[in-house]
Amino acid sequence: MSRPALEVADIFRDHGLAWRRANHGHVSHAQLNVMNAIEGCRTAALGGHVARCENEACGHTVIAYNSCRNRHCPKCQGSQAREWMEARKAELLEVPYFHVVFTLPPKIGAIAYQNKAVIYDLLFKASAETLLTIAADPKRLGVKIGFTSVLHTWGSAMTHHPHVHMIVPGGGIALDRSRWISSSEDYLLPVPVLSRLFSGKMLALLKAAHAQNQLHLARYTHRVAISNNRLVSADEAGITFRYKDYRIKGPGRSKTMTLAPGEFIRRFMLHVLPKGFHRIRHYGLLASCRTKAEKLAHARELIAAAAPAPTTMRQLPTDGVATEDDPPYPCPCCGARMLIIETFAAGCVPRHRPSPSPVAIRIDTS
Predict the structure, then answer these.
(1) How many other β-carbons are positioned within 10 Å of the β-carbon of residue 261?
(2) pTM above 0.70, yes or no
(3) Cis ω before 192 (30° cut-off from 0)
(4) pLDDT of residue 182
(5) Mean pLDDT by 10 residues, the chain (366 residues)
(6) E-assigned strands of the chain?
(7) Considering only CA atoms, which of 96, 94, 93, 162 is closest in space to residue 124?
(8) CB 264 within 8 A of CB 224
């Protein structure tokens, strides 16, 4: 897959130094590390390898620079998402899946920037407890479920919008562990009931955190990250990117926005999560523990004993791009394997040179 003509790394390299100077003393060490990682990603600064087509008649040669592997890097998130999905395949159950979202209201989100670790952790906890409690209610499904939660802190226009996406199997193990109970194929749990319980739990957790002096209340806006494929243009006047206005229904929701370079970087860097904070978490049957494999095996036995149901898990969208870090991959010229012929360390120049790009000949018939 071809890489975008414009990347967040380009904006950081062109405008990052001025932004760091203008915000000296207000940029965290974690944010500086993220900027440095993104600027150096897949450049000579991180080293790399040279690969050549095994077909001697072709001999196509490319230089592939190493990835930074930073979780905030737009170039790296695509490959990391694919690796994560591969690891989750072993945990899939032969049942329909649902997509559930829990969102923080703007009044709570407004203080999240100064309390990222605390409030985002409470968001995970309140949403997970809500889903586990309602699913276990005998008046609802009466089951123990398992699900994966993923934190997002941004909206399409890079506005502050903390929310968790949940991937939830359509059913669970009966509370007495005797059978698998399936939900309706198009209905999991009542939204009004989930909403009321989540609101109550979230407020109770916030009050407890405030009573323990864990929160630092302040008025801040929290803007967050963007993927490279939504960037349109960048110069000294501003950065233009595409976003979706979800208030509009239909094709007219796609729009463009232009921000000053400094404001664009500020919004991106405010997305940086606290060091060590887990953005993806597993609950219930999928909780990471020594008995997870046993619980999944038991679930599969119960599902097999019940009436069969089709697997209809939606594929989650990713904003990443294909990588060229790990041959063998096919030669773009002849389709043969590409083999690594040289590796080079960070900051070094490879001995071999890449094959020249084909020259496009333009014939003007005007």
Answers:
(1) 20
(2) no
(3) no
(4) 93
(5) 77 93 87 92 92 92 91 79 76 91 86 85 96 95 94 78 92 94 90 94 93 70 61 92 84 88 88 83 85 88 73 38 53 91 91 74 38
(6) 48-53, 61-65, 97-103, 143-144, 146-154, 160-169, 171-174, 180-182, 231-235, 238-244, 254-259, 280-284, 338-344
(7) 162
(8) no
Residue 61 CA, distance from chain mean position: 32
**Two tokens at 113?**
């920037």
For 153-173, give the DSSP string: EE-TTS-EEEEEEEEEESEEE
Q: Report the first-to-last Cα separation within the chain, whole angstroms.
A: 33
- The number of residues making up the chain comes to 366
State residue 132 phi and psi, 5-degree precision.
-65, -40
Q: What angle do CA 241, 159, 164 make, to 5 degrees?
A: 115
Rounded to whole angstroms, how far apart are CA atoms 60 and 232? Answer: 31
Cβ proximity of 46 and 36 under 8 Å: no
DSSP string of 227-282, one letter each residue: -GGGEEEEETTEEEEEEE-TTS-SGGGEEEEEE-HHHHHHHHHTTPPPTT--SEEE
For residues 77 and 317, give the distance between their C-alpha atoms in angstroms, rounded to a whole number.
12
Predicted local distance difference test score (pLDDT) of residue 357: 66
